[in-house]
Design brief:
Elements: E1 4-8, H1 19-28, H2 30-48, H3 53-65, H4 70-83, H5 93-102, E2 106-114, H6 115-124, E3 129-133, H7 155-165, E4 172-177, H8 183-188, E5 191-196, E6 199-202
Parallel strand pairs: 1-2, 1-4, 2-3, 4-5
Antiparallel strand pairs: 5-6
Helix pairs in contact: 1-2, 2-3, 4-6
Length: about 210
């Protein structure tokens, strides 16, 4: 039998809401976060509906992270992972992951959320493989506000997962997601499951919408 790999999206799949927005609030503080919404509302809307997605995210990243000390952001991400993320998990999240890991399944987080906080959270529950949106650090130790590669969404999830796994045909792939950003991952998988409410159901490509 082939070894099994289970790839999980995070926002909307393992956790309610958008983790990145909560992280922005922690980085900026409540007052600056309110101004951020006023100044970046068009970019936030287009990012949310995946229209001109990468350009919108680059604008958001520059606003939040440009010239931020990378070590300070990493420390903030660690705090966020330990104190905030678990408050928004779906009730079945850890049960699903634990059951798979007890069967010897290799679990991977594949999310457009930021790797800075997803990695420490995942490692705290025993998951070592994390693929997320990464931020570029300049030679001066400060974030540039840019990304070294596209955000980990859509077809980029598949590209990054293939790089991690190597020979894709050597494993049986399960995919867990919740929406359009996971459709490419679903198509790549041998078995795909979509969150509907409080549980996962088998996904069919016939359900896909533009």
């Amino acid at each position: 039998m082939k070894p099994i790999v289970a790839a999980f999206d995070f926002d909307g799949t393992l956790s309610r809401g958008v983790s990145g927005l909560r992280f922005f609030r922690q980085i900026l503080g409540p007052v600056s976060y309110s101004w951020f919404w006023l100044r970046q509302l068009p970019a936030l809307i287009t990012y949310g509906i995946r229209s001109n997605h990468e350009v919108s995210l680059e604008k958001i990243n520059r606003h939040i992270f440009a010239r931020q000390n990378a070590e300070n952001v990493a420390a903030a991400a660690e705090h966020f992972a330990q104190n905030e993320l678990s408050r928004h998990l779906f009730p079945d999240t850890l049960e699903t992951i634990t059951a798979l890991r007890e069967r010897g399944v290799r679990c991977v987080i594949v999310s457009r959320g930021y790797e800075a906080y997803l990695r420490p959270w995942a490692q705290s529950i025993g998951i070592q493989d994390v693929l997320g949106t990464r931020l570029e650090t300049g030679a001066d130790g400060k974030l540039t506000g840019m990304m070294p590669e596209p955000s980990c969404d859509g077809s980029e999830k598949v590209r990054r997962l293939r790089l991690l796994l190597g020979d894709r045909s050597a494993v049986e792939l399960y995919a867990y997601g919740d929406g359009p950003g996971d459709f490419a991952l679903f198509r790549e998988a041998d078995f795909a499951f979509v969150r509907r409410g409080q549980s996962f159901e088998t996904w069919s490509e016939n359900e896909e919408r533009p």
